[in-house]
Each structure stands twice: as structure tokens, then as C-alpha cells.
Amino acid sequence: MKLECPKPNIPFNKPFFVGKELYNITQAVMADGHISGDGRFTRLCHTWLQEKLGCPGALLTMSGTAALEMAAILCDLQPGDEVIMPSFTFVSTANAFVLRGAVPVFIDIRPDTLNLDESLIEPAITTRTKAIVPVHYAGFACAMDEILQIAAQHGLLVVEDAAHAMLSTYHGQYLGTLGHLGCLSFHETKNIISGEGGALLVNDPVFMERAEIIRDKGTNRSRFFRGEVDKYSWVDIGSSFLPSDLIAAFLYAQLEQGRQIIDQRSRLFARYTVQLEPLARSGVIQLPHQDTACSGNGHIFYLITRSMADRTRLIEYLKERGVYAVFHYVPLHSSEAGLKYGRVSGEMTVTDTMSDRLLRLPLYYEMTEDDVDRVAELVTAFYRVNR
Ligand SMILES: *Cc1c(COP(=O)(O)O)cnc(C)c1O
């Protein structure tokens, strides 16, 4: 009897090393003797982000959530002020503003990009509106030209949630550098990782001095270290938003290989697209919309199935064959805290249907094209029996 060797499982995501992470950590401890925040590796990361992304100021944070919380403080919101955002996003997008007493106002998303529908922003503006928070879902850009124009007309701030969008571009500019403030995440599920981690991109220099203070417990310690003041003290509200230099050391190794990581993920993304194109043409699934004005970063490869029942069956079918696919956000407007702290502007039809039908396929740096082919073949086989 011939025994068939079972194929290894394909996880949804897998954290990875690209080379010098552990070496850099050793350097921080042994050579620098500095493992608290703002050491040599943090400075290297700041310079890398500023130069490569082209933004005047970048500050590492402990998470993408922390970057959003800093951005919310910088918006100087009063209780009851409103912030327009999609409902189809991660909780931190809204929670950061709720912590300041603001009200998230949820608007619907576009059926093609799953990003907030820019035509619904103006109808949602009231006298209390202070900011717009575009979330670049799956690393594909929101309609930033239109959003920035609306914001300028109404005197609103724009905070980009670019947690998915590291090294994605919009008309040649990096996402996260277009709004007044931009937030990146280096969580292990994102493209470039340090376990937990994030960065605030300060694109409008008027926010820079206050951003440094908020990040360092409300003190002007950064100015003290630069010799600009002769002692440091408590000058504003703030918290300890800065990461240890151990995290920065890990991150710097990934940043140095950033382009290579994005290129590898984009190759896998393109392979999925080619393999699943026939199913999309036959109308049983919808694939991610690709806009020529922006380049993606291979962050998420998703399918839109015909119904929630289809999606549930497909997840089960793949799981039985060792492939782990997952759905994504439960819309914030209908979640327990969303109902309590936020409000809706207009209909949420697209958000509701997309969140019921969206499925994310495995995609990680160490995945091979053969792995992609195996997943795509299984999806194709599923639809052969579920027409
Ligand atoms: C991951 C994510 C965040 C939060 O980032 P953390 O680093 O996990 O705190 C915020 N917004 C979006 C859209 C995300 O996907």
C-alpha cells in the first residue's frame, strides 16, 4: 500500500525574519547599552521613515493604536466633536477618538475599493465635525485628492489610518504622508513587523513639537536632549507612547528589507489574481479592485463571495484541506461600543453586505507560489461543486 504524505497546512499568516533582527537587538544591548526608548535604532528608524516615505517627521510608537491615540490628542478635540470614518475598519480607528470624548460618525464604503465613499463625506459634515479618517483598506488608497479637497474647504484635519498601507502609493506618494497626520502599524499581521509597533507620520510640521511632548509623557524631554531647554518638565497631556529600542532594533532590520518584502507579497498577490481571474469572470467571486492611480503592497488578498452562506462553506472547505482563510471586520456601527459611542450618517448597505461576504486568503512573506496555486486550486474546486 502506498502512503500519501499529507501536505503541510497553510496558515493564514506567519511572522517572519528577514535577516538582521536578532543581530540588531544584540547590538542595542551589547554595543549601545541602551534598551529604553529613543536610542540609536529608534533614530535610525525615524530617519529611514522620513527619507524613504518623504515626510518631515516620523515618530515610532508602541502600536498603530498608540499612533492613532496620539493623532487624536493632536486634533485637540472637545467632547462631542465629530470625526468622520468608515465603519468597516479595526476598532482602534474609532476607539482612539472616543477616548478623547469625540463621536465617530460612520459612513458607508465604496463597493469597489471597500474604502470610505468620499461622496458621503460632505453630507456627514456638521458644525461639530473636526476631522476625517480615511482607512486605506488592504493597502489600496482612498480617493485622497477628493478627501483632501473636502477637508480644505471645510477646515477639517485628515488623519490617515495607513496601518495596512506601508509602502503603498497614491499618484507616486506614499500613503500615510498625504494627510496632516498618518498612522502606521508594525503588528505581526502587517507587512513590515516588529511584533507590536507603529509610527506616527507628522506631515504638517506645526504638530511636531507637540507630538514629541505627547509621546514622552507630556514632557519636553526631547527638547532637553537636544539642548534647547536647560531642564525638562511636565508641559502638556501625554503618555508613554514610545517603544523600547529593542523593538526599534528588530524593526530597523525589516525596514532595510522593506522593498523586498513588499515585492514578494505583491508577487503572491499577482499570482492569486491570475489564478482566480477565471472564477471572477464567471461571476461567482469578486477580486480586489486595482486602480491605476495607486500601487498596492500585497497586504491582503480578499475575495467577495456571493453570500455569507457561500463564505462559511468555503472557509470550512479550505479548513478541512489544511488551508486557513478568515473573514474580517465586524462593522463598528453595529458593534456594542459603536452603538454606544458612535453614530451613523446615511445607509450602511455596502458595509453590511461586504463584511458578510469578504474572505481573506493566506498571504505571508514566506509563502511560495506553489502554496498560492494550491489555495487557488482549492477555491476553484469548491466552486466546481458549488456553482
Ligand atoms: C492593525 C490596525 C490598527 C492597529 O494597529 P496595532 O498596531 O495593532 O495597534 C489600526 N487600524 C487598522 C485599519 C489596522 O488594521
Structure, described:
The protein is α/β, with parallel strands linked by helices. The protein is 40% helix and 13% strand. The protein has helices at residues 21-32, 40-53, 64-74, 91-98, 121-124, 144-154, 208-215, 221-225, 245-256, 258-281, 308-320, 336-341, 349-357, 369-385, and strands at 57-61, 82-86, 103-107, 129-132, 157-161, 169-170, 173-174, 181-185, 198-202, 294-295, 301-304, 343-344, 358-361. An eight-stranded mixed beta sheet has the order 1-9-8-5-4-2-3-12, sandwiched between helices. A three-stranded antiparallel beta sheet has the order 7-6-10, with no helix packed on it. The chain has a two-stranded antiparallel ribbon with strand order 11-13. α1 (21-32) crosses α9 and α10 (258-281) packs parallel to α14. The longest helix is centred in the last third of the chain and has 24 residues, at 258-281. The two termini are 36 Å apart. The mean pLDDT is 96. The structure holds pyridoxal-5'-phosphate.
